[in-house]
Amino acid sequence: MKKNIHPEYFSSAKAKCACGAVFTIGSTKPEIHTEICGRCHPFYTGKKKLVDAMGRAERFKSRVSKKKESPKKKVRVRKLKS
C-alpha cells in the first residue's frame, strides 16, 4: 500500500441509530449517526410500518387514492394511412 493516501481506520467506531441503539463497527469515521438500523428496520422486526423519508409515504398514498377515484380514460388508436 502507498503511504499517506489512505484514511485512518477506526476499528471500534460507534454507530448510533435514531431509535437509540448504539453498536461498535469498523469505519473510517470515529462516530456514525444513522436513521434506521437492524433493530428498528421493518424488514428485520417483522412490523409492517412505513418508513417515511421526507413525506414520500404520504405522497405515494395520495397518488394511489387519486388513481382509485378517477376512472380510466379510453385511448383512441389512429390507423396510419398507407
From TrEMBL:
The protein's GO terms of the molecular function aspect are:
metal ion binding; rRNA binding; structural constituent of ribosome
Q: Does the keyword ATP-binding apply?
A: no
Residues of the region (Disordered) are: 59-82
One Gene Ontology term of the biological-process aspect is: translation
SUPFAM superfamilies xrefs: L28p-like (SSF143800)
**Entry's family note:** Belongs to the bacterial ribosomal protein bL31 family. Type A subfamily.
Record note on quaternary structure: Part of the 50S ribosomal subunit.
Protein name (database record):
Large ribosomal subunit protein bL31
Q: What is the lineage of its organism?
A: Bacteria, Candidatus Wolfeibacteriota
